[in-house]
Amino acid sequence: MSAQLQTISGILFLLFGGLAFFDGVYLHLWRFRLFAWRESRREHALHTVRAILYPLTIYLMLAIE
């Protein structure tokens, strides 16, 4: 992978990570407390799995190169 493509993908990963952090922490946990609502527990579980897998994805992207 070229250096320019790596830089672009790194920037996109950071932007996505920032948006995911805002959505997951601020909106889901703090503002709306979605974990407390029975109707949104499945979505909360999916977001938790995504939050766990995201750093692993970044690590693998950097380690494979």
Give a quick set of tags describing it.
single chain, 65 residues, mainly alpha, elongated
Quick overview:
The protein is mainly alpha-helical and 65 residues long. Helix content is 82%, strand content 0%.
Number of domains: 1
End-to-end distance: 8 Å
Overall strand count: 0
- SS class: mainly alpha
Figure out the total of helices: 2
Helix and strand pattern: HH
The residue fraction in helices comes out at over 70%
Main sheet record:
none
Radius of gyration: 15 Å
- Report the mean per-residue pLDDT as an integer: 90
What general form does the structure show?
Answer: elongated
Q: What percent of residues are in strands?
A: under 5%
Uncertain parts: none
Explain this structure.
The chain is mainly α. It has one domain. Helices cover 82% and strands 0% of the residues. The chain has helices at 3-31, 41-64. It starts with a helix and ends with a helix.
